[in-house]
Design a protein that fits this description.
two-stranded parallel ribbon; disordered N terminus; 14 helices; alpha/beta
């Protein structure tokens, strides 16, 4: 997603043109970051943004990346982390039992000399019980002393409306979110925050950020914005949560992950969705993408074929 020039702050422009920045770029060039999930929503963007900043990047995924990496194959861990000083970690998707395998990967990373890990978690997970996998990984990172860490806890992705489970079907967005609101965030902004932590790990060591969009929207409001961008009416339809979870499982979502989706939608429907904050601006110097900007730039995803 291109960022309008006006969104760059004066401070950022000044920094990029300063002699100090040239020193940073030289330092970045000697810093190699392993990006897991490098073909996914955030990983692909993180890799791109790091490369743009002169950081040496090694992409890793099951297919389509520089190195083969598979959470189900621990033999792929050591070759992936070899020579890396930083790692962007995305947990196994559609699973709830991954804390142990991520811990074993982090052991390998420590032994390989990795100095910093940026971990993609989820909004509000700091309030979850320790046995919840995402929180368990956070606590694991907190316990390690030979590497630093940053934690990214984003709101729901705007890209869910164009790429995954919130994408309109038959001109409807069907999800049991009721009238609750969420500060949907662009994957571009999540990646910008993550890239910043990996470029300057000392500055962001021990920090947790919760990237959000600039405004909390109900699904009905989001549907209206998408309708305007697409040039046709797309409606939001609330639905029975149990029926929706069963439908998701029939479509291929693992049964245990269905319970995660139940909890996520209940959180928003109950009025406890994410609320806008200043983390994206504070970390990157750039204001977060609005939902209207996202919709305008993504309109082709909803155009009638």
């Amino acid at each position: 997603m291109s960022v309008p020039h006006k969104r760059l702050s004066v401070n950022i422009i000044a920094t990029l043109s300063s002699s100090a920045d040239h020193g940073f770029m030289n330092e970045a060039a000697s810093h190699r970051v392993l990006v897991l999930g490098a073909t996914g929503k955030t990983g692909s963007r993180v890799a791109s943004k790091l490369s743009e900043r002169g950081v040496s990047v090694r992409t890793a995924a099951r297919t389509g990346a520089e190195v083969h990496f598979d959470w189900d194959d621990p033999a792929t861990f050591e070759p992936a982390v070899h020579g890396a000083s930083g790692v962007y970690v995305v947990s196994p998707v559609m699973r709830t039992d991954f804390a142990g395998v991520v811990s074993r990967f982090l052991d390998k990373a420590e032994r390989a000399g990795v100095r910093h890990v940026t971990y993609l978690s989820a909004y509000g997970i700091e309030h979850a019980p320790a046995e919840v996998a995402l929180r368990a990984v956070e606590l694991d990172l907190l316990s390690r002393t030979s590497l630093t860490h940053s934690i990214i806890r984003p709101a729901w992705f705007m890209q869910n409306f164009s790429e995954t489970f919130l994408k309109p079907v038959s001109d409807e967005i069907v999800v049991p979110n009721g009238t609750g609101a969420e500060a949907f965030v662009s994957a571009e902004d999540i990646a910008s925050v993550a890239a910043a932590t990996l470029c300057e790990p000392e500055r962001h060591a021990g920090r947790a950020y919760a990237p959000t969009g600039p405004k909390a929207l109900t699904l009905d409001e989001a549907a209206k914005i998408i309708s305007a961008a697409a040039g046709r009416t797309i409606a939001y339809r609330d639905t029975d949560r149990d029926e929706w979870v069963r439908a998701m499982i029939r479509s291929g979502v693992p049964a245990e992950y269905g319970e995660v989706l139940r909890a996520l939608t209940e959180t928003i429907a109950s009025g406890h969705g994410s609320r806008p904050n200043g983390d994206v601006l504070a970390v990157t110097g750039i204001r977060p993408v609005s939902f209207a900007e996202f919709a305008a730039e993504t309109a082709s995803a909803w155009k009638e074929k």
